[in-house]
Design brief:
215 residues; 35% strand; Rossmann fold; alpha/beta; 13-stranded mixed beta sheet; single chain
Length: 215
């Protein structure tokens, strides 16, 4: 099952939905859902970003509301990911998780490395940009167009044994150093590309140029 989670950051028009998608809003992400004419199945959070009128509307629409205390140990987005996992989601698209506050943005990106979600396929989407995590032993397929930008950023130490396919600057069982910038701004030379990683973790950021041109 695929889940679509709306966070409370800067948003752009959502991707095409499938009829059986589970739509979850992390607190103020419900505002984005309503603005796009969408009714979420579930809203999770402390509701400090939702006014009484919107909460009343969500109740009238029959939306399930799961409220947590303001003083809690998890962000609203992390709680939303937990609920998506508990409800059987294996693929999760997260929208509006970037922009605005840098602390929230960095924390949201690093949620991809949370071991609680290691078995999930999670993608953060911000318009033409996508962010995924590549785990050790994983072979990640990237779909796009020639000219799309692909950046590989090591997390939690050096990333070793990286091999890429159909990127302008290929890697052949090589190492990207933590804190280095060698993996930034590579480019796809075919409609699909791939990254294989033996040891460590990598953030893979894809920027689709055609979507930027159309916007």
């Amino acid at each position: 099952m695929r889940a679509i989670i709306f966070a409370n950051g800067v948003t752009s028009p959502p991707p095409t939905f499938q009829p059986d998608d589970l739509i979850i809003a992390a607190d103020g992400g419900a505002r984005h859902c309503l603005a796009f004419g969408l009714t979420p199945h579930l809203v999770v959070g402390d509701f400090d970003s939702l006014d009484d009128d919107r909460l009343k509307l969500l109740r009238e629409l029959g939306v399930e509301l799961v409220q947590y205390p303001i003083r809690k140990d998890y962000t609203d987005l992390e709680l939303a990911l937990q609920h998506a996992c508990q409800r059987g989601a294996t693929e999760i698209l997260v929208l509006a998780a970037l922009g605005g506050r840098w602390d929230q943005t960095l924390a949201n990106v690093l949620l991809l490395a949370n071991q609680e979600f290691a078995t999930l396929e999670i993608c953060l989407i911000d318009g033409a940009q996508e962010i995924r995590l590549v785990h050790a032993g994983q072979h990640l397929e990237i779909h796009g167009s020639p000219g799309d930008t692909v950046s590989l950023i090591p997390l939690n130490g050096d990333a070793q044994g990286i091999t890429t396919e159909d990127l302008e600057y290929p890697l052949h069982s090589e190492t990207l150093r933590f804190g280095g910038t060698r993996g930034i701004s590579n480019m796809m030379i075919a409609p699909s590309a791939a990254v294989f990683l033996r040891h460590g973790t990598l953030l893979c950021v894809v920027i689709h140029q055609q979507e930027l041109i159309e916007e």
